[in-house]
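Why run this: before we spend reagent on co-expression, it is cheaper to look at a predicted model of the complex and decide which construct boundaries make sense. The entries below are exactly what would go into the expression plan.
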Amino acid sequence: MAVNYKAPINDIIFAYDVLDSYNILNKIEKFKDFGLDTLEPIVEECAKFAEEVLAPINSIGDKNGAIFDEGIVKMPPGFKEAYEKFTKAGWSSISLPSDIGGGGLPYGLSAAILEILCTANMAFVLGPGLSIGAISGINFHANQGQKDMYLPDLVAGNWTGTMNLSEPQSGSDLSNISTKATKQDDGTYRITGTKIWIGSGEHDLSENIIHLVLAKVPGSPEGTKGISMFIVPKFVVNDDSSLGGHNKVNCISIEEKLGIHGSPTCVMEYDGSVGYLIGEENMGLNYMFTTINEARIRAGGHGLACTSGALQGASQYARDRVQGRPVGMTKEEAKDSSIIDHADVRRTLMTIKSYLDAMRYMNYDNHLMLDLEYFAEGELKDFGKERCGILTPITKAWISDLSVELTSMAIQVYGGMGYVEETGIAQYFRDARIAPIYAGTNGIQAEDLVFRKITLNDGKAVESLLKEMRTNISSMKEHENLEPLSEILERHVAEIEEATQYLLIELSKGNLAGVSASGTPYLKMFGQVLGGHYMGKAAVTATKNLLEDNAGFYNDKITLSKFYIEQLLPLASSYFSSVMLGKENLYSIDSNSF
Amino acid sequence: MAVNYKAPINDIIFAYDVLDSYNILNKIEKFKDFGLDTLEPIVEECAKFAEEVLAPINSIGDKNGAIFDEGIVKMPPGFKEAYEKFTKAGWSSISLPSDIGGGGLPYGLSAAILEILCTANMAFVLGPGLSIGAISGINFHANQGQKDMYLPDLVAGNWTGTMNLSEPQSGSDLSNISTKATKQDDGTYRITGTKIWIGSGEHDLSENIIHLVLAKVPGSPEGTKGISMFIVPKFVVNDDSSLGGHNKVNCISIEEKLGIHGSPTCVMEYDGSVGYLIGEENMGLNYMFTTINEARIRAGGHGLACTSGALQGASQYARDRVQGRPVGMTKEEAKDSSIIDHADVRRTLMTIKSYLDAMRYMNYDNHLMLDLEYFAEGELKDFGKERCGILTPITKAWISDLSVELTSMAIQVYGGMGYVEETGIAQYFRDARIAPIYAGTNGIQAEDLVFRKITLNDGKAVESLLKEMRTNISSMKEHENLEPLSEILERHVAEIEEATQYLLIELSKGNLAGVSASGTPYLKMFGQVLGGHYMGKAAVTATKNLLEDNAGFYNDKITLSKFYIEQLLPLASSYFSSVMLGKENLYSIDSNSF
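The model came back. Tokens follow.
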């Protein structure tokens, strides 16, 4: 009875069209020939893999969970076999650079792959996602010897990687981590401390696990400026790449969580484990940010994926379930009807699908900008970096928050059956709930947006995005059918401009506490308007494509944009007063009176 | 580490003040002396019971769940002992009429009792809640012999009761239930069929279980007009009230659910079980509505309770958890700070607490109106009935939808710990998710509102409520501090008036499909504005009380009203375009394209 996943290939390919992806990627030397003919077969192959290998073990992973037994973590039935197929087929490394053995495909493409694989089985995909983080960390910041020693097996998936940041007293704030790294005469360090929230910190999928660990070298500066990053393998790696002894890296427990049961969240104990410094001492947090930024964009992708899966479940159920006669239909008209013909169920599905499209455009665009940031040259690289900077906190927080709401709506379509675990729909809801939390809580994303991002390049980065929104509105006005929508969008763009201006002024006045308090409503407002921007672009693209064969598909896309802009976008305005009021009233009540 | 529940007695007592409860109740003959001195000791006693007996087994119930084993349902550890104390103390029957052995207290008071008990342990309270439904069904519609036979033990809690409506093919739509009731020569019936979603259909808490079962007598009219209601006891009751043989009433399985694990949701099989007709044949659905209406108001109470528990957890955690320095504070200022001093955490707690107050006023008022409907005379009775009619779908749907969102916000305050089941906060989120579904899904509440409720008494019922909102706005204007708030509220009341007028016109034109499509956004908009109305009333009450001792408390209440009206109420406007657009675009996409 679980959801029968079919990757929405047409929607995915259309997203690349909306975002003008091929032109963007072709400006990068190594992607100059990238086109639909490169994309399509990979997406199709990925869909096949996700549907056939990962989706069937999604609810098995949820039901059985990863099992902790005296230091050993046993993954759910079927996960080991699937992992072997997964790495063999190269899905773990498809977007990693080819010079380290990866597929060398753009990040822009990995957005679709992430969506598809993760919709099929989010808990499964989280582990390999963390490996990518560790690989990036090593590839960007480690020395050649370290790269040679660790990357080949990590990229091949023979080993997996993790990120070790949090400690019990140190989660969102890393300034007071207490894990210690003591330098030895041979240049290695001994790592001692406890780390928490370590995704796939221990498991039985691979021969070795390479932990990237943040720790403090005694005598280093206080706070975040004294954090260093170390490679700490579970089994020490010999010079010939064979595995040596166990490195006193122990998983002492795993968390019992609301969701993602197939992904073990470990408490790790390092007890004088041998660690190898990456780069220089005290630069750990900077290094970590490379991988954290990617993790944030991926977290948005997780929200997108849960929503996509939930929509498939809800629409399948709504087509099958017969119950009552839709209001306004005669008995005769209603004889083949199911609950999908009830207006309220329709509204629910339209809401989920419209948002899903907006999420997809936003998340994919963010990935594309990562390609520009990493692989383009000159101004284009700068542009990519700035745009990626703006988009990342919005992608992460807006999408992940919404995904909780939309998976909840999908449960509602099932009625009572939605509350029963057997149907599988509640799993999306439980799995989705992690995305607003990890890779920096959504509150932290809001702080990042208002303090670090709207001020990028003296405010010119956000200005450029707002200008692009205006340009898009002009394009919409060239099409008669989109004129009324362009006017609605225009009003909301004006409002987000006003809010942005207000925050920049308050920042210049030094009103930090006020701006901090405006963070979340501003991010939500920005996300809602940015979603409208992408839906406007989608409507323009679909309108241009209407003359092609597939008019039904493009008309649907125009309808979804219309629905978003007319019915969902107005939510943006409801945040305006909260942005402008800042911290007013927030502190009028004593902490003890809540 | 679970949430340490303390009933918010001051907030609860203030709610009765805001709603002018004593004056309202005193207009009913049997409650003419009811006052704070009656209320306060009961609320305090109830709080003590909830905190000491029910709260400690809340997470035990969640973790262990009810266990099904070959027809037997074993309740979680501690539930049986707690149930004995619960019935002995009279909490199960406190609001039931005294002539049948109940406490004879107003429904208005049971609102507080429901909130307190249910916050402490929702899964536990659901069973006795269903008994109350069965008792009401029997008390209102059964004959004296049946009342004498079943009510004393039901009211005393020696037996429990259930409601059997749904069948696999028949959930929201009861017209095609297939359970059969065949009349016997002795005047009894034989009941055969399968019923699903039967809360507490089987358990080990009481000696007997009295099921109220909807079934069809062969030859009765088609659809809902051919439904009859039967008493079907698990053990047949002899004339001397002793228990006879097992009545072939079997629980064949229980559901594995997202939440409320301590409340068994049973599939019941009736296999020629002896049933006793209540009232007349074919009147079953009418009888059921008595109990369903109360169940809807209670479902709103469940949402309120989950939110209240979640706020307590989140605010406790936020006061204890130290992490980072709040933006804008110096190191010195921040030395005793915890995350509750971070603006974004504050905003979250303010949002939850403001909504919680609005929910409480709304739910309590709905209960008070039930007292007028049942126990007042003449015009006042009519008024109670109409007002109750309008409030019930809004109370049920607006509160329960919000409770999912607000318990999710509470999880967010905990960060990673919110996703770990050990902290107990996720339980509120999972438990809350049922309330939008049961007692008629929230989509059905919206249909009820737009088709049956705004048309009550030719639209005069809703007009009277809108007029009361206007009167309240005038009261606000008498207080200088509330003048700006009154203006915001006024704009939103005007908008809901416009939306209401629009729907009434469309109904008169026969645009049923369009009105149906407007249902949910209209209900959400109405709920948001009605919440603003109550918060306005609260601000007036608090302003008047400011001269009393407890100025800090009343200032907090004014702040919460201000926060609601300035920052949460604007959400209402975002639904306006959806209401006015009705079904436009909803059917432009083919069912198979979702």
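Chain A has a mean pLDDT of 96. The radius of gyration of chain A is 24 Å. Bring this page to Monday's planning discussion.
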